[in-house]
Design a protein that fits this description.
By secondary structure, the chain is of the alpha/beta class. Helix content is 48%, strand content 13%. The radius of gyration is 18 Å and the shape is globular.
Length: 261
């Protein structure tokens, strides 16, 4: 329970990587504020499940991550309700693929807003309280695409590269206030969404899910293994620990060697 007494807000945490991070932080004793969109009953089931599994407070805020005012309200209300905001995980993200000349302007705007601008607004709102209390951990979920590019992902790659840059600036500005800022850069992570993509590809191509896994991984990763949300969560927990107090401004790859070649 190394994080007992800390309060963590994880955006985009009703499923996938974000939920894995929230679960890992809760297991270490941090109170959790979830955020994300989806079926209200399903979200409540997730929230109640975490609260029943771990001896921590678990809340939910449905702030729209494309709206600055919503994000800043969520930060303020978290601090008011829970007494502090010690750990901010900017994890919310969306994706769309198309060649640059075919990329819809509205999709570009939405991806930049949710994947990059949301992290800026949340960070800007959270830093004053962290400075005042002399402690803060800011973790941005970037991607291997924050370090390298792939075709048909202009907006996503631009946003994730921007997120790594934002992380570095945040780290420099807060270096002597007890605050760290780091970017986790996953490769392929076996989330429910990716699992469904694999199953759909297998059904479409008449292959097996295992064959599709190998093909997907071989496209980019020397290590033909998926990371898991639990492993991403474990890295986040480490970054929140005292052992990581001088790790700041770092893009940390957890990608099976994707960016090593």
């Amino acid at each position: 329970m190394a994080l007992k007494g800390r309060v963590a807000l994880v955006t985009g945490s009703t499923s996938g990587i974000g939920l894995g991070i929230a679960r890992a932080l809760a297991a270490e004793g941090a109170d959790i504020v979830l955020n994300g969109f989806g079926d209200p009953a399903a979200i409540e089931q997730v929230r109640a499940g975490l609260a029943a599994e771990f001896p921590v407070r678990v809340g939910y805020d449905g702030a729209d991550m494309s709206k600055a005012a919503d994000i800043r309200r969520m930060i303020a209300e978290t601090e008011t309700k829970y007494g502090s905001l010690d750990i901010l995980v900017n994890n919310a993200g969306i994706q769309f693929t198309a060649n640059i000349e075919d990329f819809p302007s509205e999709k570009w705007d939405a991806i930049i807003a949710i994947n990059l601008s949301a992290a800026f607004h949340a960070t800007a709102a959270a830093v004053p309280g962290m400075k005042k209390r002399g402690f803060g951990r800011i973790i941005n979920t970037a991607s291997a695409h924050g370090l390298v590019a792939s075709v048909q992902k202009a907006a996503y790659v631009a946003a994730k590269h921007g997120l790594v840059g934002l992380t570095k600036v945040t780290a420099i500005e807060t270096a002597n206030f007890g605050i760290t800022a780091n970017a986790i850069c996953p490769g392929w992570v076996l989330t429910p969404l990716v699992q469904k993509q694999l199953e759909d590809r297998a059904a479409h191509d008449g292959t097996s899910v295992d064959a599709e896994k190998k093909a997907m991984l071989a496209e980019t990763q020397p290590m033909h293994q998926f990371s898991s949300p639990e492993e991403i969560g474990a890295l986040a927990v480490f970054l929140c620990s005292d052992a990581a107090r001088t790790i700041t401004g770092a893009p940390l790859s957890i990608d099976g060697g994707w960016v090593a070649h």
